[in-house]
Structure formats: C-alpha cells, structure tokens
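Example 4.3 (complexes with small molecules)
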Amino acid sequence: MLLYPRLVFSFFLVLSVNFPIIAQGGRIPVRAENAMVSSSHYLASEAGRDIMARGGSAVDASVTTAFVLAVTLPSAGNIGGGGFLVYQSANGESTTFNFREKAPLAATKTMYLDEEGKIKDNSNHEGILAVGVPGTVAGLYKAHQKYGKLKWADLVQPAIEIAEKGFPISPEIEGFSTWLLQNKEVYPSTARIFLKDEQTALRSGDTLVQQDLAETLKRIRDKGSDGFYKGKTAGLLTDFMKAEGGIITREDLRNYEAQELDPIKGSYRGYEIISMPPPSSGGTVLIEMLNILEGFDLSKKGHNSAESLHLLTEAMRRAYADRALFLGDPDFNEAMPLEKLTSKEYAADLRQSIEPHRASVSDSANFSEAHLIYESPQTTHFSIVDPEGNAVSLTYTLEQSYGSKIVVEGAGFLLNNEMGDFNPIPGHTDTRGLIGTEPNQIEPEKRMLSSMSPTIVAKEGRPVMIIGSPGGRTIINTVLQVIVNVIDYNLNIAEAIESPRIHHQWLPDVTRFEDWGFSPDTKRIYQEMGHEIELRSVQGQAMGIYIDKESGMIFGAADSRSYDGKAAGY
Ligand code: GLY
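Answer. The structure with glycine bound is encoded below.
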C-alpha cells in the first residue's frame, strides 16, 4: 500500500504541559476538551464520538466504533473475527477482554496436512478450514455488560444505518473488488457484495450497501451476543459451513465465551504500561523491550539516530526471541514465565549483553524451540477516551486482509482465516519460518498466539496515552516506537505516530526500515554496526490519543498510513 498522506488541521493555543503539544514541523493532533476516538475510518470515529456526546462511556463508544468498522472497513473491522480490548478507568481500575478466535472442536493438530505431512494447498491460510470460531460479538457484549452506560441496541444501530444506506468506498476496497474480478475461485457470496456486477469492480467513491450484514446486525442489536451465536445467524453460518466443507458447528458457537483477564502491567520512566496478556504476545514483549530501553539514555542519542535505532533493535531482538520461545494460549500453556519476562531484573541482565555500537547476532541455537508463525499485516486498532477520562484500547482482526475472503451466504459478513496463526506441522521447524513446536499447536478450543498490542499508558492511575496498531508481528514494535517517541523524544502524539519506524523480530536477523523515512547516512552508520537492512513501504497504522494531565486537553491522531483514518473529538 502506498503512503497516503492526509493532513488533519486543528487550531489551538499553547497550554502548560509535560510534553510539547505544538507540532515541531510534523503533524498537528486533533484537539478536544471532552472525548476522542481515533480509528481507521472516519465514519467509525464519528459514530463513537457521537455516542459519547449522548452520554455513552468509552466502552459504549468502542461497541459502536467496532460495529461501524465491521461495515466500513471490511478488510479488518469485523464481526467474523476476534481481538482484544484493554480498559483503564480514570480512577485506575484496569482490565482486559479476550475475544480471540478459537480452534473448532473438530480441529486436530494435523488437519492441514496431506499424506506426506505437507500443508495441503495453503489450507491453514486459505479456504473454509482456515476459519476460527469468531469472538468479536461475544467480546464486545461482555465488555458492554460490565462497563456500558447506554442501551446495547442504541450502540449497534449506527452500524445498521450505514450498512443499509451505504457509504463511499476507499481505493482500498476498490483494490479488493478488482482482485475479486481477476480471481476465478471467489465465493459467489463474496462477489455478490464486493462486485458491482459479474463484470464490473467497485470503484473508489462508489456507494457500498450491505443489506444482509444490516439484517445480521439487527439480530445482534435485538438479541445481543445470542443474535450471533444462536438463532438465525448461527444457522446461516453453520449451514454454510456444512455446504462448503467447513467444521464450525452450532456447538462451537454455543460454547464460545469471551474472557475477562487481568492486564499485563509494567512501567517505563515513571509511566504505567497496561497491555494485553497472552494469548497476545503484545503486552509481554512490549514491557520487556521498554524495561531493556529504560537503562539507556535514549533522548541523548537523538530521535531515530543510528545509535538509538541500534538500541531499539537490540531490545527487539531479545524480546522477540522470548516471544518465540515461551508464549502461547495460557489456557493450554500453564507455565509461561510472564513475571520473569516483564521484570526489571531480567531486563538488566539482557542489557548487559548489548554492546553500544555493535549488533549482536540472533542466536538461532534454540531455533527448534521457536515458533515463527506468519501473521498478516491486516488488522485494525482504535483508541478511545470518554469525558470521565476512562480509556479503551482495542485491536481486532480477520487475520489477513478481508480474512478468508469468504462471506457467509445470507449473513453478509466476512469470516476470518485466523487458524493460520497456529503452528501447522507438529514437530516440523525450518529456516523459512515454518514452526512446529508445542505451545502454539492446534487443539480444539485453543486460541492461536497473537501480536495485537492494545495498550494504555497511565500516570498515577490516570490514562495519558492510548495506542495500538495493525501489522502482524510488527505491531509490538510500532507501539513501542510511538511510546518512546512521546516519552523520550517529547514528540506530540501525531508526530510520534507519523515518524518512520523499524522492525526486528529476532529471526530472520534483519531490520526492516520504512524506506521513505531514514537518511542514507543513518542507514550507513547503522549497517556499519553489523545490522542488515531490508526496506519496506509502510509499517502499521497506529491510532492514538494523548491526554495532557495538567490541562485535561485531549489530543488525537490517526496514522496517515491509513486511507480513511480520523481522530474525532468534541
Ligand atoms: N493475526 C494477527 C495477530 O493476531 O497478531
């Protein structure tokens, strides 16, 4: 995807703050006094903001924002996928909701393999067997039951109206529509929605109406979670599964439960970090990296200087190795050393092995113990703060862009292909990244490991920054760099999000740079330290909010790496 710069202007006065809020040659955040939503689609941000203007809580707004994204951002916004919600109230109460998809009851460790033990036709990523049991509706419903102020039905309604009335599509949906036209093995149920007719793709600016999706949303509006997991929607989904050779049954849907989990917590230079525990690797790895970096004077090294990039890389290398070695679904992996991985003492030990001007080598001796699964860059994140100062950080996904690309006939929503996040061949690990280790092998009702990192940064119990991003395994590093950009380099939230980013994930031992963002000199000095570089176009689409503690003013920014992102406040 090309960088798609879109400037958002707002006018404001200089206020007394901890961090500068005036753009220093970069972008200017959107400013609001009461509440803010920053998401990947302007209609979703505006709908979430309007819910709060009507008295809704941050969780209410997140329900609305998520359902609107399921209509307006079909590449990742969803009801057929799963994700994580991190919540922190203005008075320091924090929790998380885990609505990651699950393997169906009939899933087996070897379900994607042929007689020779090889993966059949990429079937863990493509086709009906790649679909995990969706969690999004259960997760939103559970969060609303605990923290909602407005009626559930009123929160789902805006999405229904947009699905029925339609909205102008972005070049990104045009791209999907064109792809459908060119591909022979497209599901007719998908083509019916995302093509104009059998011969014509949708064009950017065309209006997309989704009547079947509107009807499904009405059942969810009227019956809550049961409107998805039981009754007509469940019937449409399981009949479709049966007809297409899928394995998700009524029992799978009935059994699905979202979980409320304690967040994983750390600290960084006096700020509290509240993030997602396993089955996401995000919070654990983020806190481990921040702990390592806390021992270095990053601000003195200079923003995105070769020296600071070197230190970031070395922290990434070490924490991602631990991700690969230790993390999986906690319901199936009891002995994960989370306390150790997120401790300051462990970080101090790891720091000892970092040379100031020399790259270390990713130790692949433990490679057979690693699980380097492929994760897609397509996911979406939104950040919310309500007028009371309560915050929600929510990332959810269909896995790849448009998930399995399979729309449920008659129900109008896309299914995920999240089963591809499991290790597909038990015991088989190779240098191309196919991993077969135990913690993330397929088991019925197990959740696949994720990198989604919805995070809240707080000071004295009050949220000050809400941040997250899509981007598969790059997510954790994107979130890391936005946090460091604000805390160490005093960038405002928009500048912190816009800044170019890097990604290292232990193996392969190479650092990806956004190719537009770093000077040749910086890259040369960095390479002279022994690092290998690969260029990429963009990394992530961070959506963030910063709340100035002294003035209470709220600053939001939507990453211009997204087509339709917007921070909307009032
Ligand atoms: N499917 C991407 C993730 O969960 O990290």
